[in-house]
C-alpha cells in the first residue's frame, strides 16, 4: 500500500473522530471559575469554531491551521449542537443565572467600604 492512500485514510479517520470537536470542548472542558466569561451552551461549539476561524485572520495567534480546523469542524459542530439543544437550553439558563448572581456579588463587594 502506498503512502498516499494511507495518509488520506488516516486523515478521514481523524476527521470522523474529531467531528463536533468544538461542541465536545464546550461541554467537557467547562472549568472557568467565572460564569460570565464562558461561551454559552446554545450552539457553543459552533461559536468556538467561529472564534477559531476569526482569530486565524485577526487574532494575536494568527494560525491558518486552527482556522482550517475550525472550518472543517464547523458543520459537524453545527449538527452536534443541534442534537444537544434540548440539553443546552436548561444549561444556558443555569449559566445565565450564575452570571447574574456573580454580577450582583461583584456589585455588593465594590459597594461595601
Distance between the termini: 74 Å
The averaged pLDDT comes out at 77
What proportion of the residues is helical, as a percent range? over 70%
Strand content: under 5%
Count every beta strand, where a strand is a DSSP E run of 2 or more residues. Answer: 0
Shape: elongated
Helix/strand/pairing category: mainly alpha
What count of helical segments does DSSP give? 5
Q: What kind of sheet is the major sheet? A: none
Q: Radius of gyration over alpha carbons?
A: 18 Å
Q: What is the H-and-E element order? A: HHHHH
Quaternary status: single chain
Low-confidence stretches: none
What is the element layout, followed by pairings?
Layout: H1 3-17, H2 21-28, H3 44-58, H4 64-83, H5 85-111
Helix pairs in contact: 2-3, 2-4, 3-4
Task: Explain what you see.
- It is elongated and about 70 Å long.
- The protein is an all-alpha fold.
- It contains five helices and no strands.
- The model has no long low-confidence stretch (mean pLDDT 77).
- The chain starts with a helix and ends with a helix.
Can you give me a brief rundown of this structure?
The protein has 113 residues and is mainly α. The chain is built from five helices and no strands.
Question: What features would you highlight for this structure?
Answer:
about 110 residues, mainly alpha, elongated
